[in-house]
Amino acid sequence: MQIFVDADACPVVDIIVAEANKKNINVTLVKNYNHFSMQEYPEHVSIKYVDDGADAADYRIVQLAGKKDLVITQDYGLASLCLEKDCIVLHHKGFRYTKEKMDQMLEERHINAQARKAGLRTKGPKKFSEEQRDSFRIKLRKLLDDI
User: Fold this and answer.
1) In sequence order, what are the residues at sequence separation of 6 or more whose Cβ sits closer than 8 angstroms to the Cβ of residue 131?
2) Residue 90: which CATH number?
3) Which of 19, 130, 139, 146 could cross-link to 94 by cystine, CB 3.0-4.6 Å?
């Protein structure tokens, strides 16, 4: 098992790196070149940079991830593609994506996109809280323990 992270806007990369280290699991952070960083990571972490383009990081993760790998993303489309590859897919808020709920999630995303195109305002995500970080850490630990 390996962990792949849609890392451009992921607020829990540090937690993922720390928890994976405890279990000796390799982590691949997939980032757009616009998010290039000189930050150094432990040996079990690699970074794959992709060109600036719509969904470039998503396509790279789909290409790299395999059956039973863990993918962490907030992107419903990427989650859907990874579920089809029998990956375990986790949102940075800690909930697990499932095939059963995916159609509804994608439909809601589509409706919100249509509303924005029509000039309507939709609610954006609230600021990520320390409580959510702690919740993610607990859920990730449990998931890694169960695997």
Assistant:
1) none
2) 3.40.50
3) 139
